[in-house]
Amino acid sequence: xxxxxxxxxxxxxxxxxxxxxxxxxxxxxxxxxxxxxxxxxxxxxxxxxxxxxxxxxxxxxxxxxxxxxxxxxxxxxxxxxxxxxxxxxxxxxxxxxxxxxxxxxxxxxxxxxxxxxxxxxxxxxxxxxxxxxxxxxxxxxxxxxxxxxxxxxxxxxxxxxxxxxxxxxxxxxxxxxxxxxxxxxxxxxxxxxxxxxxxxxxxxxxxxxxxxxxxxxxxxxxxxxxxxxxxxxxxxxxxxxxxxxxxxxxxxxxxxxxxxxxxxxxxxxxxxxxxxxxxxxxxxxxxxxxxxxxxxxxxxxxxxxxxxxxxxxxxxxxxxxxxxxxxxxxxx
Length: 332
Ligand code: AVJ
Prior knowledge:
- The chain has about 325 residues and is of the alpha/beta class.
- The protein folds into 2 domains: about 5-15 and about 60-205 and about 295-330, Rossmann fold (3-Layer(aba) Sandwich); about 35-60 and about 215-290, no CATH class.
- The protein is built from 9 helices and 14 strands.
- It has helices at about 20-35, 50-55, 65-85, 100-110, 125-135, 175-190, 205-210, 220-235, 295-305; strands spanning about 5, 10-15, 90, 115-120, 140-145, 160-165, 195-200, 245-250, 255-265, 265-270, 275-280, 285-290, 310-315, 320-330.
- Strands 1-2-5-4-3-6-7-14-13 form a 9-stranded mixed sheet, sandwiched between helices. Strands 8-9-12 form a 3-stranded antiparallel sheet. Strands 10-11 form a two-stranded antiparallel sheet.
- Helix 6 (about 175-190) links the parallel strand 6 and strand 7 (about 195-200).
- About 40% of the residues are buried.
- The chain binds N,N,N-trimethyl-histidine.
- N,N,N-trimethyl-histidine (AVJ) binds near residues 57 and 223.
């Protein structure tokens, strides 16, 4: 498709057809709301307001993952870059790339920084970030790829030794089957010298986990309900967020936080764009997100199942969060 903008150091490649996002939302909403346990995929939280609310979440006292991951990057980026020794840094879901600078700094110090390839759904944020970074890092070329990285991994440039970073713990949003096919696809696109740097939140006391997803200021509750506003706007639906309540609990068996919206009344919601009426009984819960928590042993198994091998493992001083480096497994 058409490269949206090219300057000397910045290239932005757009692979999103107009309306594709809306088609996906329509399909996902129709399928998810037809299940016995109603469900909406978490990627639709992140419109402008949702992204702002998530930014607020990352600053909440209860929400430790962002700070813990940042502290690993602050302390270990030199080691990470030495272990991966990349020419380019590919980042899936790059957004404003705030944590990425630690890796770029370490690559610059090691003299190996050539290219940064942010992969994101938002062209605006990616372009702004690209322009800022080329000013901050002389000689850096930024090649942004605007796509849904869940669907369009094959658009990633393949030349040079790459470190593919997938930070923030977003891999936790994938159910096991989808996680396995996603990681398997990444593995199949990796050269033998490429590395995957994956951020994962770790198993810990349920009370601590639950507090991180049900903060006392109610920001996560607003974030959760925001998906209803997205459906109201995009699909001409009539959800009343006041008739739903935020709920987050740790599912010990599945090692994951389960996030839901519970209906406070018997109610019927109309989704005009889908010509659909959806009934909720009082107390019925709709799942809006899962956030899987890992141990090192479990993650090693997850990698192995996807054709990857854990090469390195770093945690923050409190052992809350991990970054790990994986490589394609040797094929015998
Ligand atoms: C951005 C997916 C990593 O699962 O912790 C935060 C999203 N949801 N609070 C997470 C989220 C509710 C977050 N990820």
